[in-house]
Amino acid sequence: xxxxxxxQQTLGYEFRDVGLLQLAITHPSASGNQSKPSDDxxxxxxxxxxxxxxxxxEALYRLHPDKDExxxxxxxxxxxxxTSLAAKAAALGLEQHLVxxxxxxxxxxxxxxxxxxxALEALVAALYLDGGLDAANDFVxxxxxxxxxxxxxxxxxxxxxxxxxxxxxxxTGVSPTYELLSSSGPAHAREFEVAVLQAGNELGRxxxxxxxxxxxxxxxxxxxxxRCQ
Length: 229
Description:
Blueprint: H1 4-11, H2 18-24, H3 42-63, H4 69-80, H5 82-91, H6 105-110, H7 112-143, H8 145-149, H9 160-172, E1 177-184, E2 191-198, E3 201-208, H10 211-227
Helix pairs in contact: 2-7, 3-4, 3-7, 5-7, 9-10
């Protein structure tokens, strides 16, 4: 059983609806094969991803009026990529509080970075749903304070999606889109296949244990193809 009180102390926020917090830390492996979409943190991860992008974008825009769009885009990509988010989740101690399915620790270890990334994004969504944008904004700005103040000091992390977007926008002004082609496997060990497209033309495909991982692989495939042209 997760220690919700300890998590709230770490976050510096007391939930009115602790059920939102419980859901945010529930890994898909805990909900079983017959689960509903609302039984684990994946829907919350979807919402949290969008909120995190918006909050980081606004903070960078506000804090760095001398930086152009390209610089801000690169800075944001470095902060919200999977490795960065997983590291923040680990620093908060989320791993020890995640609710996993019985006997699923080995499977979790194989996809730990993706699971921690999802948990952090779900947590942002939980804060938003419980306390509004102010709660989510305060949390994100606090845990990313150093990186937001000095984004150029952050280590450069490979970001295929950001690189692809920048390349396509510079060349044609048309951003890439990602299409989920298939998902298979049990809830705790899903495999996703994603295609990346530009103006309806497929540029590459990728697979992974999460949609984000598959999208990253698809972007890498597209970049490799573009470099050969």
